[in-house]
Design brief:
There is one protein chain. The chain is an alpha/beta fold and about 180 residues long. It has two domains: about 70 residues, Nucleotidyltransferase, domain 5, CATH 3.30.420.250; about 90 residues, Protein of unknown function DUF3822, C-terminal domain (Nucleotidyltransferase, domain 5, 2-Layer Sandwich). It contains six helices and ten strands; from the N terminus they run ββαββαβαβββαβαβα. The strands form three sheets. A five-stranded mixed β-sheet has the order 8-7-6-9-10, with helices on one face. It has a three-stranded antiparallel β-sheet with strand order 2-4-3. A hairpin with a 2-residue loop joins strand 6 and strand 7. The radius of gyration is 18 Å and the shape is globular.
Amino acid sequence: MYSVLEPKLIFDNDYYALVPELLYQKGKEKTYLKFNTQLENDDYVVSDNLKAINTYNIYLPYANINNYLIDKFEKLEFYHFNTVLINRLVNKNDSDSCYCFIEEGFLKILILKKREILFFNSFSYNSLDDVLYFLILVLQDKSLKNSKLPVKIYSKKDPEEIKNKFKSFLKNMTVIHHDGFNQIL
């Protein structure tokens, strides 16, 4: 056994669904998740309660990794990255904002309005043009395209490249370079 005070593991995958507390029924997690991903009978499905927004994040953790780490540490807390991300941003943000998290091959877009989620989803992409397309599509869909809504973009990519490509379309934009999720969270 290893001596670690409070081991925590954060998963980041696309096997998740956000379900409002009013619709959530314990024991029905697979039912909610089956619309977003293909499930096997023996898949282990868990949920995190996002109390600040009265929502559950239902997801598939990597059970083999969990089991290995539980064998090493006895006790292990684990969460989905979306749970940690949404909780942190909702709790620290009083203003309406759009967040875009660009990773290699996928991105997440979160729009908060008055400390509530107006939009949250993940997308696969191949180029920055795709990222811009998804951002504009989401902002247009939520009638926010020409608003003064601040758009905060977190990426490992060159901030100047993103600014140059997006500046004609996003007026109130900040690009933050990060080397890992610790800087985001």
